[in-house]
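Subject: design request, 114 residues
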């Protein structure tokens, strides 16, 4: 009786692991496509990024760190030289991202590497 419970639990974790892998792959694919269309078709790029975020929320996944700061969190537009200001504040050790479309500002801290 105990072995059947264990086998059901193992099957359940395998199923969750597969769902997690599939949602992560689809989220990364959508983010790459969104980054590819950012200059030619910004509206489509925003839609793809929003869809990737929704997949991540359903699968309880975080956005990959290298994609996280390429897009505005409020209007989903991608950061490029035409749509964003990126500045360094060396006194406070911060990077300031400002979206020129919605004027949303995000700050990210950094430290010197040893």
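Subject: RE: design request

Done. Sequence follows.
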């Amino acid at each position: 009786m105990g072995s059947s419970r264990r086998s059901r639990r193992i099957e359940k974790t395998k199923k969750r692991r597969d769902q997690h892998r599939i949602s992560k792959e689809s989220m990364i694919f959508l983010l790459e496509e969104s980054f590819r269309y950012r200059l030619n078709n910004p509206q489509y790029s925003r839609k793809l990024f929003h869809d990737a975020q929704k997949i991540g929320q359903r699968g309880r996944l975080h956005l990959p760190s290298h994609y996280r700061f390429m897009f505005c969190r409020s209007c989903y537009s991608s950061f490029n030289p035409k749509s964003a200001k990126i500045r360094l504040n060396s006194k406070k050790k911060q990077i300031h991202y400002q979206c020129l479309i919605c004027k949303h500002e995000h700050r990210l801290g950094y430290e010197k590497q040893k």
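Strands lie at 84-89, 94-99, 105-109.
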